[in-house]
Design a protein that fits this description.
The protein is 45% helix and 20% strand. It has 18 helices and 17 strands.
Amino acid sequence: MILVILRVLYDTRSAAKALAYILFIILVPIGGMVFYFSFGVNYRKRKMYSKKIVEDEKLSEEIAERLHTYSQQIEAAGNLTDGHRNLSRFIFNTSDSPLTADNEAELLLNGEEKFPALLQALKSAKSHIHVEYYIYKDDATGGEIADVLVQKAREGVEVRFMYDDFGSRGLSKPFIKRPEEAGAQTAPFYKVTRYALANRLNYRNHRKIIVIDGKTSFVGGINITDKYRNDTKAPDGLYWRDMHLMLKGAATLYLQYLFLCDWNFCSKNKLVFGETYFPAQQISDAPGGDLVQIAPSGPDSVLPVIFYSLLQAISLAKKSIWITSSYFIPGESLMNALIIAAQSGTEVKLLIPGVSDSKIVDAAARSYYTVLLQNGVRIFRYNKGFVHAKTMVVDDNLAVVGSANMDYRSFDLNFEVNAMLYGKTTAGKLKAAFTEDLKGAKEIDAAVWLNRPKHLRIWEKFVRLIAPLL
């Protein structure tokens, strides 16, 4: 037990998480040690896999230099504030993800906006379609998209379909076999096997990425299944509120890069860097359009890029921070950042589900509300349905849309991806969507909340002890 505790201390970056593991090991020695070795090994320190997709060192250096020059040129155009410039540099320095311009970004509210746009884009594919999803179900929506993938594969378009082996565990062999017979390639991400069951369950690909011809891409929080659309549900069906993003332009290329890295990790049919997948980008004399930068994070990154980028974005706020998160277990650093912002006069609003799909996660989240409410953070519970979106809008000029929740799992364990959009256009649209969502939400009354029964508060604080493990 002492040796395992020493291993935890040496190997765990977060003090809160280390303490949670140590308490568990002391209270339940055998179970605690098994749990730690199954779920707690620090893969960020060991890097789950290499992101290298270019074996030629000289070419790799040339590409890195080209990305750096490109990002600098966009930055030099003067379209970023000083704070955003520092945020952009941080993301580039920690992930090689460049700032891109001349993009066309379109917010897609819920499945009823996303799926028609996606189907139209898929049908227009000429070269290749790359699909990477956490949850893909064989229902009406999944079947309709699969039909298009099969048809495009028969037309000679390269189709690659990658699905998380745990999140999409309901997919049957016949469903997977059908696109393969049409010529498409498929691969489960980090296949769950009996001998590595627990550990592999812990590190999942939570990304939702589609890249079409290296020019158009989709990223956000909406998985592929019927429950994400509200236009075809029965009257008693749960309203599902979510957000996705369609991108056209240079920002697509980094999503392509992430797909290739993930594909080469889990597929036997390796892909190599080439102009087919990364079409050359021309920088206009006066770069404009939407400024977009992709922020990736996961056990394959040295630092928790998404977590740090959110902290920096919050610190840059001058007027407002509006956050929507379906699972909110922020940890001390993020909570303190929000408190500092609120106490500095920044308007901080947090939109969360009225009813969570996990009672334990909900209890852990509630344990943070008291201190946030006491310090001026306004919290709204969404009651129209279930809010699953993962978005943040800072002031009037920075929008964040992606797959990452504000919890330990997204920040430390899952493979995640967020899009950072600098400028007023998308930020304004996201603020309008947030304002509309508040019409279906009820604000938590701080006075009433602080007078809740003590046994509820004790239970929530108890659950909070294991929050780093959730």
